[in-house]
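Entry:
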Amino acid sequence: MRFLVDEDLPRGTEALLRSYGHEAKDVRDIGLRGAKDHQIAAHARSTGLCLVTGDQDFSDIRNYPPESYHGIVVLKVPNWATASFILNVLESFLQRHDLLEQVPGRLAIVEPGWVRIRAAQRGDVTISVPSTSQPF
């Protein structure tokens, strides 16, 4: 997959995605540092990149309908989460190829030990599954 990493995630996010064979670009490296959410979303959509972010605003399917994007992955972690913790949560998700293949056109909310995948379209089911490993 091809990912756009939002600036609220640790710097190591791009390297982690690449270590799993994915293409990744960090908004801080492509002139989008400090950009508004709608600008980041528009860039992800126009370039065919799946957005990976910690910004909970992107989980609002009324503002960011999943079917309009190549996927949106929102990492939902506690406020006290360290960079290492966040990367471990993401890595647990990346290890689930069965879930990754369902992300295009959908919203994935990734929490420690849990993943929910949904779309805005009527009739699309929400997939809620525990992840294989806890990032603790």
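The beta strands are 2-5, 23-26, 50-53, 72-75, 107-111, 114-118, 127-130.
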